[in-house]
Amino acid sequence: MALTGRLRSAVVIGGQGIRARKLRTFLSMISLFLGVLAIVAVQASSVLANRALLADIEMNEGKDGTVVVGVPPGTESVSAVLDLVTGHPGAVATTSTGAIIGEPGLTPVNPGGVPLRYADQGGPAMKMVCDGRGNCYSEVSDDKPPPRGNAVELLVVGVTGDIRQFRPFQLEAGSWLDFGGQPSMSPRLVLNREAAEAFTRYQLPAEMTIGGSGSQPSPGSPHPTPRVVGAVHDGSSQPTAYVRADELLRWLPETSNAAQSMGILMTPQASASITPALRAKLGPELAGQIYTHTVDSRERIGGQLDMMKWIFYGMAALVLLIGVAGILNVGLATVGERVEEFALRRAVGTPRLLLAGIVLAETLIIGLLTAAAAIAVGVVGLEAAGQVFGANRPTLQNVEFPWEAGVAGVAAGLVAGVLGGLFPAIRAARIPIATVMRA
């Protein structure tokens, strides 16, 4: 209880000293404010950059811990994957192919499914090629293409379930695919941003050529009438549409269906049962071609982010030291002016520890007030940045101020208060009682 009483006295007297020297306190806070704000800004930027980078990686590759399996192409592979994965709550299979939506028989505005920023720029004809792991890319075609028409080429990804449990797409319009009931003869599509932009920019007829690329559709390519049911942000710059796998496969020609490769996204628990069963179904030859890896993005990029964060922390610490020097200067000057006061307190029985506590309490209160001001500026600044730049920078939209930055700001304020007030506190505690005779 005695310690509690001394601590309370130190805080009260320190607060009275701050109130008695408002201008000097304000100047001390200004010298410290930039340093604490720099610490808050570095921590907030680090957390937000980490979140944004991981969000982009998760949309493209999958959440950390997701087991990704690539299955070689073939009719047996497709049927085995569908038998094991369809309806499984912890696994989603994907397959992809090229498609053209719009006027048939003409070259699309983006041959090869390139991003729309390269549309209508000419160049050689492209065709889509997919490897055994489900990765699709474009390569130059030697065939002379027909004239360009009102058509867009895109990648069509068939999924057996809600892929968003592994790749957290952001639904922006409409709804996601409904996997209940029988497959429709009219494929239901969910477009990504790039594909949705194509539908907005061009007047596209509701006709889709599946299984072809550029103006060279595969022989017997079907022409179903698609229905757009929603739009998502999937982090890809390539025009892409997502469709139920059973609706996609029923439209593919037999030759294309046999060449389809499958990919599987699943939880580690699902992988423990599905992967061995899949290897057994495929047999030794095809099982040896299965590709498996576990997504671990945080570990892969964590070192790079930490290095950048510590570099900026070092710069912020230099600014903070300038603020500490300012508090130290003001503290020493204040103690010099209050020598008689402290000597008188010593004469009436005030312990040395309490005198040191009074001075240290003042600097700690200044540090906490400065930290609060810096955190408040950080919160307001982040909100303002979201309102001003949010339209062009989606990562700034609806962003909450990270609590880690607030903790870092409070810690910086306390450290600055201790460093700036420790030496003046020691000096105040060492003032001899005889100094009171000057008064």
TrEMBL record:
Keywords: Cell membrane, Membrane, Transmembrane, Transmembrane helix. One of its GO terms (molecular function) is transmembrane transporter activity. The chain crosses the membrane at residues 26-49, 310-332, 353-381, 401-423. Signal peptide: none annotated. It is found in: Cell membrane. GO terms for cellular component: plasma membrane. Residues 315-433 form the ABC3 transporter permease C-terminal domain. Pfam families: FtsX (PF02687). It is a multi-pass membrane protein. It comes from the Bacteria. InterPro entries: ABC3_permease_C (IPR003838), Macrolide_Exporter_MacB (IPR050250). PANTHER family: ABC TRANSPORTER PERMEASE YTRF (PTHR30572:SF4), MEMBRANE COMPONENT OF TRANSPORTER-RELATED (PTHR30572). Belongs to the ABC-4 integral membrane protein family. This is Putative ABC transport system permease protein. It comes from Actinokineospora terrae.
